[in-house]
Design brief:
The complex is a heterodimer of chains A (615) and B (74). Chain A has 26 helices and ten strands. With 615 residues, chain A is α/β, with parallel strands linked by helices. In chain A, helix 10 runs antiparallel to helix 12, helix 17 runs antiparallel to helix 24 and helix 21 packs antiparallel against helix 22. Chain A is elongated, with a radius of gyration of 28 Å. The N terminus of chain A is likely disordered. By secondary structure, chain B is an alpha+beta fold. Helix content of chain B is 19%, strand content 41%. Classes of the chains: A alpha/beta (615), B alpha+beta (74). At the A-B interface, helix 3, helix 8, helix 13 and strand 10 of A face helix 1 and strand 5 of B. Strand 10 of chain A pairs antiparallel with strand 5 of chain B.
């Protein structure tokens, strides 16, 4: 990590006469809520560490002076364990800022103050926001900020990010500290640098003893809730129920919006194509606009509702404190694969749609865990693949449809877990990271923050993934409709020629004809397209496809085809999401090649074993 | 006062942390989370899988392997 990348670019805030303020703090301390409060929801995503570590940036102003605020990844300490934590620690160490705002949880002050101590050893320009001051008061915790100030030699301000109380004073203090530069406190604390953890904890305890008074108010909620949620017998059923709700909400609630977007874009496409034709443009121009550009933009935006709903729910779950507990509940089950318990969430979401599922790997802390999980996600059979299975299983396995579908889902999940295990073990050579996490107090999420975070994720997806998906959509349009005059996606088009050319590759799998090849190529754009592309290649309507299929496939080659569809590249959007989340084009391209190869080998084994057994 | 490993501590008991037999990085990490020599921890859950502790007034989950590196006195 260099100080020249990411938020600390040369010629930035300082040069523009702005003050830069870093926001640091443990996860769950209310940092995001405070950030949201300070920036009034106006924020963008910046990158640390090349492209893999993100942090949010925003602006606010105090007394006419503008302040740039950088929300660094959550960290418990100045001893980094993950790439995110390292980015946060290095940002503080490289010193390109005016003031550091540490967000501390007033309800769990001791742990936060231990971090304050570590922070003050590295930098004197620190203001500590004692967040959740209102909640602490409710629990009967009284706090004397000036006593803490005397002990630590840094400014402490009581705030409530949720209500906005104290935030103005916090900004004013931050400005004062930024103007003053290094405080003398730093020297005093630096002397104790060699002292051990015990001395530090004693120092913090003495400071707390003088500054904090408990008057026996209400205990934190969660004491009994954990007994149920973390119970070995109840925990997993509850988790399944919660996941089912998230899954349903994500893919059912968003269906209407998705369908509306679909309808609007197909109507817009037809309208635009008609208008172009009337104005005397050549037919290909209309087709490009309709099938290439407008359909391409549409295929980006159809993901937006699901991503918004999903991230809204994930952030809400994280805020309530439940997400952290999932790690505990599933640690044993996921442990066999080498993945942490939380990895179950993106994997399960993959059964709905791989694209938001790959984005959901963000809930994992360690990079090795994120990478191996996101590589496994595309094997999870998404709802688009289901449409292909329904047609084929219906035509060839009418009596045993359920068994065939179950087999396919199971095969996909097993392939994914195997891939994750192998990747972690052999490519990353990462030992299984053991869990050591805080289980935050249960609380009601701050809906405003949750919504603004989900909105940020969604717009960022549309912006960054959109351009590549659009480009691919135009490329496919070009292949399917050129040379001029051919019917869209016919044997005479470039796509058809390509299909005929590659079809021998599929002969050992039992479906070496150009129609199957071309539908698989189109299926690379989106799996939903496989069926319709095949129908048009065979010159059959979608309804009449079943009877046509019977003359081109045997039940065995149909099974082989379904296995191939299950395992090969899910869709371009998935690969784009992989590249985006891993920050590596090589990894995304390599993964795509791996999926195709994996699918080929699996289909080959199934087809030839079947032949040998006499099917 | 009986000495044992944290992984063997009974659910519902409060223990005093002794030595943490681990590398410097893990020691530091655990210390920052509130597990340090001389500190106290209440064992909320210790059946299978990760342990759940109450330290510094908040809850913490740590892996069983780590708990085996922590000596405690009950």
């Amino acid at each position: 990590m260099s100080c020249h990348s990411g938020v600390a670019r040369p010629g930035d805030a300082a040069a523009r006469g702005m003050m830069r303020c870093l926001l640091v703090g443990a996860p769950n301390c209310g940092k995001s809520t405070l950030f949201n409060r300070l920036t009034k929801g106006k924020q963008k995503v910046g990158n640390w560490h090349g492209k893999t570590v993100e942090c949010k940036e925003g602006e606010c102003s105090v007394g006419g002076r503008r302040i740039e605020i950088v929300d660094l990844p959550g960290t418990y300490s100045m001893t980094p364990f993950s790439a995110e934590e390292r980015a946060a620690v290095e940002a503080v160490q490289c010193g390109r800022f005016d003031v550091v705002l540490q967000v501390a949880d007033a309800c769990h002050l001791e742990r936060s103050l231990f971090f304050t101590l570590a922070l003050l050893r590295r930098c004197g320009r620190v203001v500590v926001a004692l967040n959740k001051a209102d909640e602490a008061k409710r629990r009967g915790i009284g706090m004397d900020a000036s006593s803490l100030e005397r002990a630590f030699g840094a400014k402490f301000v009581l705030v409530s990010a949720k209500t906005g109380e104290g935030v103005a004073r916090l900004l004013a203090e931050a400005e004062t500290v930024a103007k003053a530069g290094e405080t003398p406190a730093r020297a005093k604390l630096t002397k104790g640098k060699e002292s051990g953890a015990k001395e530090d904890h004693e120092f913090v305890q003495r400071a707390l003893f003088a500054a904090v008074k408990h008057d026996g108010g209400k205990r934190a909620a969660g004491v009994d809730v954990d007994r149920a949620l973390l119970n070995p017998w109840l925990g997993i059923p509850i988790f399944i129920a919660v996941m089912w709700l998230v899954f349903q909400a994500t893919f059912v609630l968003s269906t209407q919006a998705t369908e509306a977007i679909d309808a609007v874009f197909s109507a817009a496409g037809e309208f635009a194509a008609g208008a172009l034709l009337q104005s005397g443009s050549p037919p290909w121009a209309g087709s490009l606009v309709q099938n290439g550009i407008i359909a391409g933009v549409g295929s980006v935006l159809v993901f937006a509702p699901a991503i918004f709903v999903l991230f809204f729910l994930l952030h809400a779950l994280e805020d309530t404190g439940y997400l952290a507990r999932i790690a505990v509940i599933l640690d044993g089950i996921m442990g066999k694969t080498g993945l942490p318990g939380r990895a179950a969430i993106p994997l399960i979401l993959g059964f709905g749609c791989n694209v938001p599922a790959i984005r959901a790997t963000r809930i994992l802390d360690a990079k090795e865990d994120r990478l191996s999980t996101m590589l496994a996600v595309p094997f999870m059979s998404c709802s688009a693949r289901f449409q292909v299975f329904v047609v084929f299983a219906g035509a060839f396995f009418a009596a045993n449809q359920g068994v065939v579908l179950l087999f396919l889902y199971f095969l996909g999940a097993a392939s994914g877990l195997l891939t994750a295990f192998a990747f972690r073990r052999f490519a990353m050579r990462a030992p299984r990271s053991e869990l050591a996490v805080e289980l935050p107090d249960y609380q009601v999420p701050s809906w405003e923050t949750v919504a603004s975070q989900a909105l940020l994720e969604t717009t960022e997806f549309a912006k960054r993934a959109g351009t590549i998906i659009l480009a691919c959509s135009v490329l496919v349009w070009f292949l399917a409709s050129m040379p001029t005059g051919v019917e869209y996606g016919s044997k005479e088009s470039y796509a058809g020629a390509l299909g005929s050319f590659i079809s021998p590759l599929f002969a050992p799998l039992g479906f070496g004809n150009w129609q199957a090849s071309i539908s698989l190529m189109f299926g690379g754009v989106a799996k939903e397209v496989v069926v319709s592309a095949m129908a048009s290649a065979y010159g059959a309507g979608e309804g009449g496809l079943s009877s046509v299929l019977a003359s081109h496939f045997t039940p065995l080659s149909a099974l082989s085809f379904m296995v191939f569809v299950l395992l090969y590249v899910p869709c371009i959007a998935t690969i784009v999401a992989l590249r985006r989340e891993s920050g590596s084009t090589a990894l995304a391209v390599g993964a795509a090649a791996y999926y195709v190869l994996f699918a080929w080998v699996a289909a080959f084994l199934i087809y030839n074993t079947g032949l040998a057994l006499g099917f | 006062m009986s000495r044992m490993l944290l992984s063997d501590a009974k659910q519902g008991t409060t223990v005093t942390i002794g030595k943490v037999v681990a590398g410097h990085a893990l020691q530091n990490r655990l210390s920052e989370l509130g597990i340090y020599e001389g500190g106290k921890a209440r064992v909320i859950k210790n059946d299978s899988g990760p342990l759940v502790l109450e330290v510094l007034g908040g809850r913490l989950a740590i892996g069983r392997g780590q708990a085996k590196k922590i000596e405690v006195a009950a």
